[in-house]
Amino acid sequence: MTDWAETYDQSWAAREAVFAALLEQEDSLARVLARFDDFERAHRLLTKDGEVRYFAKPQAPDPIGAMNPTTPQAFHGQMLAASDYFEFRRDRLLADLSQTADCVIELGSGYGRQVFAMWLAGANAQARYVAAEPSAIGRRLTQRLAALEPRLKLECHPFDFRSATLPAVAPDQRVLLFSSWASMYAAPLDRSLFRAIAAHPGPVTCVFIEPFGFQVNPHAPFAAQQRGQMEAQGMNTDFFEALREEGAAAGLELVSVAPDLFGRTDETLQLASVIIAEKAGQDACAEL
Q1: Same domain, yes or no, for 128 and 26?
Q2: What average pLDDT does range 115-144 have in this prediction?
Q3: Same domain for 50 and 113?
Q4: φ, ψ (nearest 5 deg) of residue 105
Q5: Structure pTM?
Q6: DSSP output for 173-227
Q7: Cα–Cα dist 220/240, whole Å
Q8: Residue 3: its pLDDT value, please?
Q9: CA pair distance 73, 113, nearest whole angstrom
């Protein structure tokens, strides 16, 4: 078993170098993000001789070929062949959910990709945004990118799923809290996270977009393969169980569970489930 944490910080130096070059050429957040996506489609981040670096993929992306429905993907658990351009708009989902939130928190935010994507998709301009991330380089890069969008009220806080301390939020604020391909690294998971979330006096909506289909349904078509990959890389295998047990006991109610909702089936760590839990505010609970 490998430990993802050993190379996590090293990978940020490689990403920061790519972003530094892009920021010398662009002053648009949307263009910087799009060009970084293009770079990552053409390169793979690998460890070689103890160093984490980007290596060019053997074949450059082929736009015309990518239109053909040849990529094995999933949609609502159903397997299909689709174009590489077929994707689930999680930026729109998060932007829509943000409209009733006063504070939006991303756990394991990396360089802020999902916060920026939802912002550019029309997220609530009045909300406070918090990027909670363990890597100091990731937080620094997030702040540098956020400077390209002066209206975005974003702040960065240290955060680690293995010893979870949530950013402070005003008691009366409505919170949207989410993770996207981040809770998968929570090993071991600090199960007190769910009690901390539920302890917020105001309403909370949690959205977890993660490769957790095997945790929801261990008999699903790709469950065994997905579990094997997660275990081999030292990733989380008990998040959904902890959410059902610790979260439910603390007052978090599961309102939507969509296993294997979207993603590639030939790369099961990219096969995402969407899990949504909610807690009503104390005032609403008192009225029930």
Answers
A1: no
A2: 97
A3: no
A4: -120, 125
A5: 0.92
A6: --EEEEEES-GGG-SS--THHHHHHHTSSS-EEEEEEES-HHHH-TTSTTHHHHH
A7: 15
A8: 53
A9: 23
Task: Tell me, rounded to whole angstroms, the distance of Cα 281 from its chain centroid.
Answer: 25
> Per the structure block, which two tokens stand in for 210?
């993660």
Over residues 56-108, the pLDDT tens digits come to 998 877 788 878 777 778 777 777 777 777 788 999 999 999 999 999 999 99
Reading the block at residue 259, the tokens are 């296993």
Q: What number of residues does the chain have?
A: 288
Which CATH number goes with the domain that contains 223? 3.40.50.150
Q: Are residues 52 and 170 in the same domain?
A: no
In a domain, 195, yes or no: yes
Residues 247 and 113 in one domain: yes
Do 139 and 48 share a structural domain? no
- Domain containing 24 equals 4-56
The first and second tokens of residue 75, run together, are 């949609």
The amino acid at 237: T
Q: What is the spatial distance between Cα 146 and Cα 94, in angstroms, rounded to a whole number?
A: 18
Phi, psi of 198 (to 5 degrees): -70, -20
Burial bucket for residue 88 (CB in 10 Å: 0-12, 13-18, 19+): middle
The model's pLDDT over 229-269, given as tens digits with 9 standing for 90+, comes to: 999 989 999 999 999 999 999 999 999 999 999 988 888 89
